[in-house]
């Protein structure tokens, strides 16, 4: 149980375009979803936390207008990287937690590799 | 500032051998500590979780220890297999009155060679 999927698993795009990444909880209702970014040989860095039906809370230094997060339902959150640039190339990982479990129990998705040319 | 430091940064071991990874943290107030395995290009998968009162937790060939007094944890891999090649991440949770915050270590990259 507690499976989280991401789509796509990898994407290559041109500089200036926008890319949408989906995060789905397959067998549970995710009350909270988290988006992380991971650069090579570095730890996961939390970008934002989103609760279903409300605006995401962004970590310091993360541009909310560049990284648009929508958590429209209890099973789906999307991250849109707007006007992507090469420095946005990274591994993006989502995670989800759900009501009834300790808030800090997060189930991670498989990640999405973004390469901006 | 809550920090999690792991050592070594990377290690190479021969198949069948044992190894131990270290994690030191300064996270407070402490809630729990988890070890994750992250295969290349994949998301982290939980191996163990330990709370303040737990000293040892095993999951197959993985054994984690926790010393909450010295704020140290270790992950011991027994009889390593090629499939153990991955990054192992120590994650410490701080419990606040109405929120939790996770602090991630940078990970230890383990390479198992035949």
Task: Give structural notes.
The complex is a heterodimer of chains A (117) and B (114). Chain A is built from no helices and eleven strands. Chain A has strands spanning 4-7, 10-13, 19-25, 32-38, 45-51, 57-58, 67-73, 76-81, 90-97, 107-108, 112-116. In chain A, strands 2, 4, 5, 6, 9, 10 and 11 form a seven-stranded mixed β-sheet that branches. In chain A, strands 1-3-8-7 form a four-stranded antiparallel β-sheet, with no helix packed on it. The radius of gyration of chain A is 13 Å and the shape is globular. The mean pLDDT of chain A is 89. By secondary structure, chain B is mainly beta. In chain B, 0% of the residues lie in helices and 61% in strands. Chain B has no helices and eleven strands. In chain B, the strands form two sheets. In chain B, strands 2, 4, 5, 9, 10 and 11 form a six-stranded mixed β-sheet that branches. In chain B, a hairpin with a 6-residue loop joins strand 4 and strand 5. Chain B is globular. Chain B starts with a strand and ends with a strand. The relative contact order of chain B is 0.34. The model of chain B has no long low-confidence stretch (mean pLDDT 92). The interface between A and B is medium-sized, with 20 and 20 residues.
């Amino acid at each position: 149980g507690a499976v989280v999927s991401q789509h796509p698993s990898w994407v290559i795009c041109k500089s200036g375009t926008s890319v949408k990444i989906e995060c789905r909880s397959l067998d549970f209702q995710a009350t909270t979803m988290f988006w992380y970014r991971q650069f090579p040989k570095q730890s996961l860095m939390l970008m934002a936390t989103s609760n279903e039906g409300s605006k995401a809370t962004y970590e310091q230094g993360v541009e909310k207008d560049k990284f648009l997060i929508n958590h429209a339902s209890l099973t789906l959150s999307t991250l849109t990287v707007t006007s992507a640039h090469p420095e946005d190339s990274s591994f993006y990982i989502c995670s989800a937690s759900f009501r009834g479990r300790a808030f800090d129990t997060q189930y991670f998705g498989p990640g999405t590799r973004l390469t901006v040319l | 500032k809550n920090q999690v430091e792991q050592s070594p940064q990377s290690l190479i071991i021969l198949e069948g051998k044992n190894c131990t990874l270290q994690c030191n943290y300064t996270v407070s107030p402490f809630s729990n500590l988890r070890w994750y395995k992250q295969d290349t290009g994949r998301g982290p998968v939980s191996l163990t979780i330990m709370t303040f009162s737990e000293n040892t937790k095993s999951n197959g060939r993985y054994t984690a220890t926790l010393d909450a007094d010295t704020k140290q944890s270790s992950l011991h891999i027994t009889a390593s297999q090629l499939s153990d090649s991955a990054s192992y991440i120590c994650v410490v949770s701080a419990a606040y009155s109405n929120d939790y915050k996770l602090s991630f270590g940078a990970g230890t990259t383990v390479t198992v060679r035949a």
